[in-house]
Give the backbone structure.
Amino acid sequence: MAEEVSSQMNSLSISETNPSSSATISLVSGDDIVFKVEPTIAKEMETVQSFIDETDGKITTIPLPNISSHDLPYVIEYCEKSIAGKITKEFEAEFVKKLNNEEVKELFLAANYLNIKKLLDFLSQVIADRIANKSVEYVRRYFGIENDFTPEEEAKLREELAWTFTGVDPDDEDEN
Amino acid sequence: MDPPPSQSRRPPSSPSSPPILPDELMAEVLSFLSVKSLMQMKCVSKFFNSLISDPAFIKMHLRRSARNPQLTLVSGKCVADFRFVILPISKFIENPLITLPEKHFYPLLDTHHYWLVGSCNGLLCFSHYSAFTGSYRDCWLNFYNPATNTISKKLGYFKDYCKHRYFFSRYAFGYDSLTDNYKVVAVRLVGDGEIGDGVSETQLRTEVRVFSLRDNVWRDIQGFPVGPLRLTLPSENHGVYLNGSLNWLALRNCYGADRFYHSNDITLDQFVIISLDLGAETHVQLMPPRGLEEVPLIEPTISVLVDSLCFCHDFKQTCLVIWQMREFGVGESWTQLYRIKYQNLQHIGCWLPLHISHNKNTLVLANRRELLAIYDWTNNTVEIITNKPRWAFCKDYVESLVPVP
């Protein structure tokens, strides 16, 4: 609660100090860092755009308490490329190379919160690629999932599915 | 003004706790995985196990999987020598010298003969036949999901009767999305008189029965007043499935009791496409392309290519012509897609298109001599594949978790 109040106060002060910046949109991260973006970028973020539309464009400073200043630049970079029509396989490969597993998940949650369909689909694929062909234990660690099967239940299921457990990759060192 | 509502379950930017994905996002991620990976992941947790068996998730996964089309390539012209292999189209085009598995890929049951009827949403439908006993033979169906390696028991058992062996039932397989039900349609040519035993002139029509997987029962439906082509052999392209309909190329006012495509005896206006709506179980007649100028010497075919109904025929034994019905059911929307000279394919005659890539640059074709060709439309180059095994036909295939009945 305290955080929301502080970010709203923060946004108020920003609108006051920048009366002439109505053309740009200010996105305020959860840790109160302001990112100025073109309105076209905001359009890519459905959550932001609908917030702007609801206020008839009067409010151009948007608090995004769920998104950190670490993640927001990645989101903005992706949206810029998307508008420019420059989402290529090469760009996407470079883009995810920089991200460790935790960052990919953070960004995935951010894309979901901001409702950016393209980024969401892309990151779904990235996460799927990172867990494909990995062991069950690796996938549990990856997602922080607790095993709620009894040993008997799990053994039975594994036996039924034994034919699928061929060619599983050795677990990578967890990156985090 | 409130900030946009928070959907996350945790406070933002707290680096100590790793991000936990909510269930609906977990489903989103898992829908991108292969069936084999998903089968393994059933062991992750109870939630994973139930999600991966959930009908809504299975549909979501199927939609994604459909973006990676595969082919079921079938080898062997006679039912006794029938084998098949499944592989992604992209892989096949890269390396068409595929070898068949030594053993029959499909877990063969105690069956005399079997045949691949069709492929739909990751399920393969097989028909099985016993040996002939007089004018009868026993028939049944089963369904196989190769990705989950599950097979149904024998279903749809019945005794097929006919005096003339060309007139046994043939099958086609499809899915009705409105009722979420799979159906097998059996068609059987019948004449007004007694067929066979020297009777050769009788007007042909078609008896039609539908097997509903959900109800596990055969029902008679209104027959077709025509004779579908290519019923004379267990054949690759009769009863092609497209978006909830099965379609047969047929002849109206068709007389005869044998292999009844004789181009000299046929007029253009006899050609018709019968389209059976699997939901309503009613059929309509669609006209073939108007641009078809004369009766082809070789039996034409219909196929589903680039997600459309296509009409493929020989033109004066010089080229292969392929028409696309751009808007299903609309006769005016027939458009000529290709006119490929046989000299460009290095072999004359009787080519059947198996697959056309989405950008329409690459065609996979087979011909009756069981050659396979990969034809590059933009560069007008062809690669002829003559190695064994020789492919008889193929069906489109997508990997899915759809359970067998």
